[in-house]
Amino acid sequence: MTQNAAESTRFNARPGDITRWSQTVIPTLREAPAEAEGPSHVLLLRAGYIRKLGAGIYDYLPLGARVLRKVSEIVREEMNAAGASELLLPVLLPIELYAGTKRDVDYGDLLFKISDRKDATYALGPTHEEPITELVRGSITSYKQLPVNLYQIQTKFRDEARPRAGLLRGREFIMKDAYSFHSQIEGSGGLNETYDAMYRAYSNIFTRCGLSFTPVEAESGPIGGSASHEFMVNCESGEDTILRCAASGYAANVEKCEIGARAAGTLTEAPSGELAEVHTPNLPGIVEVGKFMKVKPDRMLKSIVFQIDAGPGVKSDGAKWVVAVVRGDHDVNEGKVKTAVRAMTGNAKAAIALADEKAARAAGFAIGYVSPRTVNTVPGTLLLIDADASGGGFWASGSDKPDHHVKHFNWRREVGAKLDDAGYVNIADVRNAIVGDPSPRAEGAKLEAARGIEVGHIFKLGTKYSEAMDLNILDENQQRRPVIMGCYGIGVSRTLAATVEQNHDANGIKWPLPLAPYHVLITLMKFDDEQTRTTASDIARQLAAIGLDVLIDDRDERPGVKFKDADLIGVPIRLTLGDKALAAQSVEFKLRNDDGKGDLCPLGEVVSRCAAAARAGGLT
Known about the structure:
Elements: H1 3-8, E1 18-20, H2 39-46, E2 50-54, E3 57-60, H3 62-81, E4 85-86, E5 92-94, H4 103-107, E6 112-115, E7 121-124, H5 129-137, E8 148-157, E9 172-182, H6 191-208, E10 213-217, E11 227-234, E12 240-244, E13 251-253, E14 276-279, H7 286-293, E15 301-309, E16 321-327, H8 334-345, E17 351-354, H9 357-363, H10 374-377, E18 381-385, E19 396-398, E20 404-407, H11 411-415, E21 425-427, E22 448-462, H12 464-468, E23 472-474, E24 480-482, E25 484-491, H13 492-502, E26 504-505, E27 508-509, E28 520-524, H14 530-545, E29 550-553, H15 559-569, E30 573-577, H16 579-583, E31 586-591, E32 599-602, H17 606-616
Parallel strand pairs: 1-29, 4-8, 16-18, 18-21, 28-29, 28-30
Antiparallel strand pairs: 2-3, 5-7, 6-7, 8-9, 9-25, 10-11, 11-22, 12-13, 12-22, 14-20, 15-16, 15-17, 19-20, 22-25, 23-24, 26-27, 30-31, 31-32
């Protein structure tokens, strides 16, 4: 190959790595440990990428560490290109940092807490909103210093009660977390501009990783904020359900997914019969109650009680509770309840949460047997009725009396005049979307389901943390204002596992070229033959010169063992050096994704063919 030809096929500014299998640690296993669950957990253990040290805690062996580095490099390049600056924050966080945000309470038992020799309490960071806010508070004082976007790639901790699926749900994990700071939402340098830049950067990252993924609208969860998107790796074994509209491209997770227009009842339909009370003792759920009463779940009303906190300094209008009513075969969506209550009360900052059972009982709610009638009996109660639960016909409901339900519930007869007061009763979308619901973006289209694994999440935080931690700046009018924030996370170790979930077969892993620990595996049939070893070294040096990483399997093992291990570890390009091929001045060339047999490639064409395969596989 000429110098110019070599330059035209170069993949990296630096030479690629050359590693001999006999000089590294790749402890492959014929069978995975009994506790392994899910494809990535099984294969990463079997292929020698990770090793369990404790519950939800794993060693990253040389192969695993190489993949992590490649994911991190892609993340780092795209974050830098999007204008973010890298830093590194401590893992050990003083618990006092959470004084204003109360996220130590929100995280609960998920937060690792430890004490030092002076009995001071610290947390192991699950994310770093508080320390980054504290850092910026001490570094930036004027709007002229904004915007700024800071990120790190670091180990995080979450004390999962039941860690499972290996790297997908561990207690220690590696994450990229970024935080942006702004003086405004709209316009140049505003939060929306950076949010859009991060959305593009994330799309670039997962495209460069060689992954099939879907960005979906999402709830913000314990992080908080006004808007968010998750980036899901499309995978049948995924733990998350995605609902999407094929006609419009709209996609959202179950907690966030909107539902298109549905016909609502008028709440004036005639009763189906006289109200009849039924004794329903010792029945733990709506399915069991329905069987006992001989009523299908879709003809039962499920009433869930929430508490309303107007927030500090906000004068309450008397609303303290909300009862959300859905059909018995549906689930109430807390995020949608929050949105509906804020619209009803006009308080955009009202906090809505599932009611504390003790407090709700004291107020007069028969938890487990609540009916919509409580809008009339418990002071300060609002009523939200999902459209599918608002019609006429036969309904069964709780009776507001322990161990009792009623048949022939009728909205007008049982609730009465309150139904006409929009200050107390509204028909609203308050349930989780399901497959077959009307699309919110394309008339006539239906929502479809898919499975995915969350690998990235971006949030518009607003001023939640800056207000709680007194992060203020002087604006152009010399007025102190809270800084507006955004937050952007990627699970680096989770991306490694999700890639395996999406790319494997019965024989092992099938790495996309950009994330593979090595791009090329050279397998020696005779490990002790000098000509074979010399030829392998020459090929490896030429491949490394154009930036490809090469692993040489020079072990004293049977060919069958080497071929099985090659499939297992999943290196994308395989070159086999055997007697017949070398006698023909060739090597056997095979792609891991190709289920057929390999073919002979002349020695003089090996580098160019590997380069073409790497380019076709997404390596740049």
